[in-house]
Design goal:
heterodimer, A: mainly alpha, MetI-like fold, 11 helices, B: 379 residues, alpha+beta, Rossmann fold, 2 domains, 5-stranded antiparallel beta sheet, globular
């Protein structure tokens, strides 16, 4: 096996960029959705819950197709975004990040919800009796206590986002240097004659990245938990 | 004055409570578990909205369902020490203490940081995290945190329940110090009669969501309803008096109660100290004629005020020199002595029997505590 070449580095760089952008974009939204699903009571909550989790069960290709219809050049939102903000999503790195964000969103929400459900509501009541209003309570008590969940969600979503394939290739195609992330490069290598060695290297790289991502998540969560005395 | 008149209905539970108690002072909500004590303090704090009724503190209306008033919890300025300490686990002890102080809406500072540190001995704990504290320490921090929010009323919901019995002495003296040095009125929830005796000035007796009786601890100690909650062995008149003479050698003291004096077993007391004494009814002997040659140190002439009989025999209420004492005697003794209200009789109890049943009171009675109103009649 030869050393890592420019093709692998390019794919790795793109994967990291796409995953980082997708996490940055979806993190605040996931906190809000996790809070809504755990604490708020509103009509249609169950339907909303199911909708948030839909990417877990839908074929990724279907998600990519829906994104293409909505955010594509001729899509309802896509046209509007291009005309008003000059934002192109279809066939761009930003689009790959959006597709990744949609696919990993339920993973993130689930991790945050778990830690939110573990917070003793009595602590929030205590904060109330000490003079803290709703936003104050959220910022000073709820958010810091759900930090393990936020971190776990972010790292898991990042690790999963490095390998998002179906939605990305459907929505943004397979453009070298733009949307050809690790899994797409692996797929391309497998399709090309004589690409076996490259495919193996890319596969090993994905494997290593995934493992270190999950390990990092676990270690990070443990450290934060210890700081919280649990 | 704290006035509460509220009702709550839930499946399997109904609360219909109505009481008024003077402030400052320590108001004990006393009753068995499930009698509605915690529900009541949650309503006062605002954490729970009553189905109907009102809560007033002094001139302020905190809750009034008819007028549509419900002051939010965070604006009530009512401190709450819960059964479990509920310290914020992600903050140090110091940050926990500052949490309420920073958000205090009081125009004036009732108690400052250094005062709380001194009162509750918190200085050595400041840098620690809540999980590094013992149960008693946690509850002291919770107490300090509530005080620093500058509350105008402090709710204490069985603050010793989460502290193991051996460590209670680690917290109780601090609660006493709080009562004696601060003018913050307190509502103290407990099902331990001894805690009530040690701390309370006023008492509200709860049973199955209803107020059975309310008044001063002294007046309520004579109510027969109390026996149903504390059991026959802990029934006894509660007398407040001041020390007039101390015999350090024998560990005894003389207590002025009403217009008479009592001999009690009391160590570490000084003349002028105010002391609360519970004379257990089962420790009291009645005699229809003066007796001589007995070792008993208290033999007080008086008259029978009331006689009630129950499963345990008879409970006789005696008026002795401006004080009232309960005596528990057997049905046979009642028959032999033929005691009836108005009869003259002697009340006897040993000084030694008072050991462990005396409690220190603040030296100066907290200001503005009027005599407790008779139950049923509004103040």
């Amino acid at each position: 096996m030869t050393s890592v070449g420019p093709a692998e580095l390019e794919a790795l760089r793109l994967s990291l960029a796409v995953a980082a952008r997708s996490v940055a974009f979806s993190l605040p939204l996931a906190v809000l959705v996790a809070w809504l699903l755990t604490r708020a009571r509103f009509p249609g909550r169950t339907l909303f819950d199911a909708f948030v989790h839909l990417p877990l069960v839908l074929p990724p290709v279907a998600v990519g197709y829906v994104l293409l219809v909505v955010f594509g050049a001729r899509g309802a939102l896509g046209g509007w975004l291009r005309n008003h903000f000059g934002i192109e999503l279809a066939f761009t790195t930003a689009g790959a990040a959006l597709a990744t964000a949609v696919m990993t969103f339920p993973l993130m929400v689930r991790a945050m919800r778990l830690s939110l459900e573990n917070i003793d509501r009595g602590l929030e009541d205590a904060a109330r009796t000490l003079g803290a209003g709703p936003l104050d309570r959220f910022a000073s008590i709820t958010l810091p206590l759900m930090l393990p969940g936020i971190l776990a969600g972010a790292v898991t979503a990042f690790a999963a986002g490095l390998g998002e394939f179906g939605a990305v290739i459907t929505f943004t195609s397979n453009i070298p240097g733009v949307t050809r992330t690790l899994p797409l490069a692996l797929y391309t290598a497998m399709q090309s004659p004589g690409g076996d060695a490259l495919a193996l290297r890319l596969a090993l790289l994905s494997f290593g990245l995934g493992l270190s991502g999950l390990l990092a998540a676990e270690l990070l969560v443990r450290r934060v938990r210890r700081r919280l005395g649990r | 004055m704290l006035q509460v008149a509220v009702s709550v209905r839930r499946s399997g539970f109904a609360l219909d409570a109505d009481f008024a108690a003077p402030t400052p002072g320590v108001i004990a909500l006393f009753g068995r578990s499930g009698s509605g004590k915690t529900t009541l303090v949650n309503i006062i704090s605002g954490l729970l909205a009553p189905d109907s009724g009102s809560v007033r503190l002094g001139e302020d209306i905190l809750t009034d369902t008819q007028a549509g008033i419900a002051v939010p919890v965070e604006r009530r300025r009512i401190g709450y020490v819960f059964q479990d300490p509920r310290l914020f686990p992600h903050l140090s002890v110091s940050a926990n203490l500052h949490y309420g102080r920073r958000r205090a809406r009081a125009a004036t500072t009732l108690i400052d940081f250094d005062e709380v540190l001194a009162l509750l001995a918190l200085e050595p704990l400041l840098a620690r995290r809540p999980h590094q504290l013992s149960g008693g320490e946690r509850q002291r921090v919770a107490l300090g945190r509530a005080l620093l929010a500058q509350p105008r009323l402090l709710l204490l919901d069985e603050p010793l329940a989460s502290v193991d019995v051996a460590r209670r002495e680690e917290v109780l003296p601090y609660l006493e110090a709080l009562r004696d040095r601060l003018a913050i009125p307190m509502v103290y929830v407990s099902h331990q009669f001894e805690e009530v005796l040690q701390l309370a000035t006023h008492m509200v007796l709860l049973e199955a969501g209803k107020v059975l009786a309310q008044g001063s601890v002294n007046a309520l100690s004579l109510r027969p309803e109390l026996q149903g909650i504390v059991g026959p062995d802990l029934v006894g008149a509660v007398l407040d008096g001041s020390v007039t003479r101390v015999d350090a050698v024998s560990g005894s003291a003389e207590l002025a109660v009403g217009s008479g004096t009592l001999q009690v077993s009391l160590r570490d007391a000084a003349v002028g100290d105010r002391v609360r004494l519970q004379v257990l009814a089962r420790d009291v002997i009645l005699a229809v004629q003066p007796v001589q040659g007995l070792s008993v140190r208290n033999a007080l002439p008086g008259t029978v005020a009331a006689v009630s009989t129950d499963d345990f025999g008879a409970l006789v209420t005696m008026n002795v020199g401006g004080a009232t004492v309960l005596a528990r005697i057997t049905a046979g003794a009642l028959q032999a002595l033929r005691l009836r209200p108005g009869d003259a009789a002697w009340t006897l109890f040993k000084a030694v029997s008072t050991r462990g049943h005396t409690f220190r009171l603040p030296r100066a009675q907290p200001a503005a505590v009027p005599p407790a109103p008779e139950p049923g009649r509004g103040p």
